Amino acid sequence: MESQLCSSKVVIIGTGAVGATTAYTLLLRERVSELVLIDANKERALGEALDMNHGLPFTGGMKIWAGDYSDCAGADIIVIAAGASQQPGETRIDLLKRNANIFDSIIHNIVKYNTHGIILVATNPVDILSYVSLKKSGFPSNRVIGSGTLLDSARFRYLIGEAKEINPRSIHAHIIGEHGDSELPLWSLANVAGIDLVFTDEERESIFESTKNAAYEIINAKGATFYAIALALDRIIVSILKNEASVLNVSTLLNDYNGVSDVYLGVPCIVDKTGVREVLNLELNDEELEKFQASANKLKAAIAELEL
């Protein structure tokens, strides 16, 4: 696969915990040649950029600066991590109307200067805001991607690995649907080296509940989640910039996917330099299909209230 890292430019909009940690992850791993930080609080973006610049003697030759929306010009990927943050006891859907209004301005300003890059959405509720970004930007759906259930699937694999005492990187298991309360585990497809994973119903329920509620547990403990989502965003960015064609559970626009259309949900996709190159159609059992369609209907009802 052709590497594009030598001349890559990434813009991160929003330098709160998620945006700043994502930027720092890209710096540590020397992923890009140019990294731009944009925030409504310009001083915050400047401070983050200066702090990272002072570390450049210990890393590589990246160019990092605090900019404005005009710096979106020529960017390969624009990461949106801006918006109101999730509060203790608040669901991701509760955030919807507050962040949808913020996205109106963000997307309007992006497309002034960039109509050829890829928009990568991290702000919650990520599936709905990815759909909002698609509608507001006019971009083709392959170039508007949400972080989806990539992190949820990583949490799921970690917990299964802990239970089975197996490295989580060797676990093949998926969380699909909403990045949120209606997500669902695909136990029917979970395996190690093609061998089905055997759990009792109680064990399955415990693992999934810990997966689904992980963000709430972390938010209650320290106020926000940002390390793991930054690593998930880094994974998506690298798959795009290196044209890897990796299979990642990102949020994308579905078209007759197990009976679901016109909504963004997290499902396994092939991600390369074009964005989402292909959506992989999983065979769901009857129970999984019912839950997946219910997840879609929940989000479609919320989208309808926005009157896009």
Topology record:
Layout: E1 9-13, H1 17-28, E2 34-38, H2 42-53, E3 63-66, E4 77-80, H3 96-113, E5 118-121, H4 126-137, E6 144-146, H5 150-164, E7 175-176, E8 184-185, E9 191-192, E10 195-196, H6 201-212, H7 214-222, H8 227-241, E11 246-253, E12 264-272, E13 275-279, H9 286-304
Parallel strand pairs: 1-2, 1-4, 2-3, 4-5, 5-6
Antiparallel strand pairs: 7-8, 9-10, 11-12, 12-13
Describe, in plain words, how this protein is organized in 3D.
The chain is of the alpha/beta class and 308 residues long. It has nine helices and 13 strands. The protein has helices at 17-28, 42-53, 96-113, 126-137, 150-164, 201-212, 214-222, 227-241, 286-304, and strands at 9-13, 34-38, 63-66, 77-80, 118-121, 144-146, 175-176, 184-185, 191-192, 195-196, 246-253, 264-272, 275-279. A six-stranded parallel β-sheet has the order 3-2-1-4-5-6, with helices on both faces. The protein is globular, with a radius of gyration of 19 Å.
Q: What does the overall shape look like? A: globular
Total strands = 13
Structural class: alpha/beta
Mean pLDDT: 94
Low-confidence stretches: none
Largest sheet: 6 strands, parallel
End-to-end distance, in Å? 39 Å
Oligomeric description of these chains: single chain
H/E element string? EHEHEEHEHEHEEEEHHHEEEH
Can you give the helix content as a percent range?
Answer: 40-55%
Total helix count?
9
Radius of gyration: 19 Å
Output the strand order for the largest sheet.
3-2-1-4-5-6
Q: Strand share of the residues?
A: 15-25%
